[in-house]
Write a structure and sequence with these properties.
The complex is a heterodimer.
Chain A lengths: L11 E4 L10 H11 L5 E5 L17 E4 L7 H14 L4 E3 L6 H13 L9 H6 L5 H8 L6 E4 L2 H11 L3 E4 L5 E4 L2 H15 L3 E4 L5 E10 L4 E12 L5 E6 L3 H14 L2 E10 L5 E7 L6 H6 L4 H10 L14 E3 L9 H10 L1 E3 L12
Parallel strand pairs in A: 1-2, 1-4, 2-3
Antiparallel strand pairs in A: 3-15, 5-8, 6-7, 6-8, 9-10, 9-12, 10-11, 11-14, 12-13
Helix pairs in contact in A: 1-10, 2-3, 6-7
Chain B lengths: L6 E3 L15 E4 L3 E4 L5 E4 L1 H11 L4 H12 L3 H15 L11
Helix pairs in contact in B: 2-3
Classes of the chains: A alpha+beta, B alpha+beta.
């Protein structure tokens, strides 16, 4: 086991820093890391100078912020930018927190390794295997129930599928966003929007009305789950984001999760999203290749998965993970962070700036 | 004792699961029940809570009718009717499937 004295800890780069209406996981991951390693240095990789996590003073604060190119620009531009950042602020670990970033980081893994940067990621095959367009095939193979889904670049094929399924249905983007469509013209409009924003394929999916269950977990890359926490979403926003959740203990759900992770030999963080209609089994409708935005709730109740991943990276003795007791719950609570336009100006013009100083303003977050 | 509408589900929730274990119901006082398997929770009235607790620990129907009769000072036929009405209410709530009989 290596020494984990604060001065010897590697610096971590975390992305997905915006905690807006559709909260991203980066600040929650940072908070979890700091709960275990309070002196850790964390730098933020942002796409926009208004990503809120760059201005936090609390436990989820970052020590410096750097703007990076959007994922669609490709891996080489990202690598070039990371090399520039390393010159001024060397870092040794990256935790990507957005789905759309993963393909670039998976491609760059060998190059990052050459630079002494560790990034725990699923294999390209595992990443593709759980993608929205391949999830149905995966689930059918391993006998995990899944809503009827069709992925296509052709709007007429999707219209035909939904016509047979019946309206309403969900039309989903490749990485993010789901639109509820009630008519053929809704479907065409949603298809056009989502194709323009996220590229193809676009998915059509049957609607299952019921309760939503999410599992955050960490795979060991050999088929086992290192730790996990399951919740039922108690409050959902219009776009389906969970703003409240309660821990559940359900062996059936655990068994389905174990089957998925074993088949993919998943390495790193994941979120499995299930829907359960009355009287029917849980259906897996999405698997996200990253920590979810509510991961710090799990950390606060003893299932600190970001810290466990970091322990693995640095070879530290792992702390015991607690699964959470059914009935423990979280409610998301938005706050206002005070800042100064000078901070934004520095970031917008130079692409980087030091993070705000720590305070006790925000000690608890989900 | 009022048996009708003895179980109010939380807003927005529908029926829950079929696989709840009999011990998955957790009681908070006499008017709130949380199912640890499905994560659903319910407001109930005290008499429904009393019957559910008894069913969860496997009390036989005859003995349960005796207990309800005695606790609420009602006739045996009223006790049997109230238990049956509650059990009918529970048929639509999966977490209670395992405690209905």
């Amino acid at each position: 086991m290596i020494d984990v004295a604060p001065k010897k800890l590697p610096t971590i780069a975390v992305s997905g820093l915006h905690r807006g209406e559709n909260p991203q996981p980066g600040p929650a991951v940072t908070a979890g890391l700091r709960r275990r390693f309070p002196e850790l240095r964390v730098i933020g990789l942002a796409y926009d100078s208004l990503e809120s996590g760059q201005y936090s003073h609390g436990i989820d604060r970052i020590d410096a912020a750097f703007l990076v190119p959007y994922p669609r620009v490709g891996p080489q531009e990202l690598l070039a930018r990371l090399d520039i950042i390393r010159q001024s602020d060397p870092f040794q670990v990256i935790i990507p927190c957005l789905d759309s970033e993963l393909p670039n980081y998976i491609k760059l893994k060998p190059e990052l390794a050459k630079r002494g940067i560790t990034c725990i990621l699923p294999s390209a095959a595992a990443f593709d295997g759980r993608s929205k367009e391949n999830l149905t095939a995966l689930c059918e193979r391993i006998k995990v129930p899944v809503p009827a889904t069709c992925a296509s670049n052709n709007v007429y094929e999707l219209a035909d599928f939904v016509g047979r399924l019946g309206y309403p249905a969900y039309i989903k983007g490749r990485f993010y966003e789901a639109r509820l469509v009630h008519t053929l013209s809704d479907l065409h409009a949603a298809f056009e929007d989502l194709m323009k924003t996220w590229g193809g394929p676009v998915l059509a999916q049957e609607i299952t009305l019921g309760e939503e269950y999410d599992i955050v977990g960490l795979g060991d890359g050999k088929g086992k789950i290192v730790g996990s926490c399951s919740i039922r979403k108690m409050l959902r926003t219009k776009s389906g984001k969970g703003f409240a959740g309660v821990v559940v203990s359900d062996p059936d759900l655990d068994e389905l999760a174990a089957r998925v992770i074993a088949d993919l030999r998943w390495d790193g963080p994941f979120e499995l999203e299930f829907i359960k209609a009355p009287g029917k089994p849980h259906q897996l409708f999405e698997m996200n290749p990253r920590f979810p935005a509510w991961v710090d709730f799990a950390s606060q109740i003893g299932c600190n998965l970001p810290a466990r991943m970091f322990e693995r990276i640095i070879g530290a003795k792992p702390e015991t993970l607690v699964r959470g007791t059914p009935g423990q719950m979280f409610l998301r609570h938005c706050i206002d962070i005070a800042g100064d336009i000078a901070d934004l100006a520095l970031l917008a013009t130079s692409g980087q700036r030091p993070g705000p100083k720590a305070s006790n303003q925000l000690e608890v977050m989900t | 004792m009022k048996s009708r509408r003895t179980v109010d589900r939380q807003a927005g929730s529908r029926r829950a699961r079929t696989s709840s274990r009999p011990d998955s119901l957790r009681f908070y006082g006499d008017e709130f029940i949380f199912d640890t398997g499905s994560g659903l929770f319910y407001r109930v009235n005290p008499s429904a809570s009393f019957i559910l607790r008894a069913l969860q620990v496997g009390t036989e129907p005859d003995k349960l009718a005796d207990e309800v009769q005695s606790r609420y000072a009602i006739s045996r036929s009223a006790a049997v009717r109230d238990i049956e009405l509650l059990r009918n209410d529970l048929t639509s709530l999966e977490p209670f499937d395992q405690v209905r009989t």
